[in-house]
Amino acid sequence: MTQIKKLGPGLALCLALAVPCWLLGKAFPLVGGPVFAILAGMIISLFYRTKDRTQAGIAYTSKKVLQYAVILLGFGLNLSEIAKVGATSLPIIVSTISTSLIVSFLLYKLMKMPANISTLIGVGSSICGGSAIAATAPVIGADDEEIAQSISVIFLFNIVAALIFPTLGGMLGLSNEGFGLFAGTAVNDTSSVTATAAAWDGMHPGANTLDQATIVKLTRTLAIIPITLALAIWRTARARRTGGGQQSSFSLKKVFPFFILFFVLASVITTVATSFGVPSSVFQPFKELSKFFIIMAMAAIGLNTDLIKLVRTGGKPIFMGLCCWVAIAAVSLGMQHVLGIW
């Protein structure tokens, strides 16, 4: 009862924001509910500074509810379907992820960017946008403003990609298979991947690239597992090197992303169940709940974010996001050419 009194007001506020943003995301999938939620939270924070009464629930939503969303995301991954497409897409996926991480690391060094923002933009650009940021943020200890800034950068280039990639693919003479791989590897967020592929299908009746692009995108999502584990180990090693006499107070167990193990378990459950004839539609409610939890968490993050400060400090993160985005697109197309797909 004490926990309900402590967390209830903040949870209720995030829930009240999430419902209309979820509906707006359904109506405008190119933008998506998480972006509406984070913007709504930031706008409200300009006029209403969260009080002690709501702060505990907002903090819980931005951290714990975000982790629950990642766990539920696993129910959308059928590993057997991913394996079918993986043989073709895996070299391109590995190349684009590596490229984004390398570019973000180099720019972090050259521009003296904050480490957490650089990591989140690199991971969000290379893996799966908001979902990757949601999984990575707790592991590296990112605060709400760093998450908000990274999400904003990813959103910007999602919009640009969805608008120009179908036309660009046509100008380059990509096949339907080639564009499915391009959209699945070079667009960040799942909703933007589906919007981009759907636009291509509209321009090329009968192409049916949407399914392939979505499966390639879900294959990229699996990279959340090794990336978060590697970051947890790296954070532990860095703390031990720099912690001096306090190194005994920091351990891998404290930062290990245990919620990622539940994410993997959810994927395995889905794969095994569907192999025994359980229809994939059974898991659809879990996937929808995952999306709604992400929207709730983004609302909480927006409420804890200073919009004015975000705008003032946005130049370098946007430039980093642009470089990662251009590099990923170029490598995706280049690898297709090398593999003989394009």
What does this structure look like?
Helix content is 81%, strand content 0%. The chain has helices at 2-27, 33-47, 52-73, 79-111, 115-126, 130-140, 144-172, 176-186, 190-203, 209-221, 224-242, 252-255, 258-275, 284-303, 307-312, 315-339. It is globular, with a radius of gyration of 20 Å. The chain starts with a helix and ends with a helix. Helix 7 (144-172) packs across helix 14 (284-303). The chain is mainly α.
Please render the helix and strand layout as text.
Layout: H1 2-27, H2 33-47, H3 52-73, H4 79-111, H5 115-126, H6 130-140, H7 144-172, H8 176-186, H9 190-203, H10 209-221, H11 224-242, H12 252-255, H13 258-275, H14 284-303, H15 307-312, H16 315-339
Main location: membrane
Protein name: YeiH family putative sulfate export transporter
Pfam families: Cons_hypoth698
Outline of the structure:
The chain has 342 residues and is an all-alpha fold. The protein is 81% helix and 0% strand. It is built from 16 helices and no strands.
Unreliably modeled segments: none
Strand content: under 5%
How large is the radius of gyration? Answer: 20 Å
N-to-C SSE string, H for helix and E for strand: HHHHHHHHHHHHHHHH
Classification by helices and strands: mainly alpha
Number of helices: 16
* Biggest sheet overview: none
Instruction: Say how many strands there are.
Output: 0
What's the N-to-C terminus distance? 61 Å
Primary descriptors:
342 residues; mainly alpha; 16 helices; globular
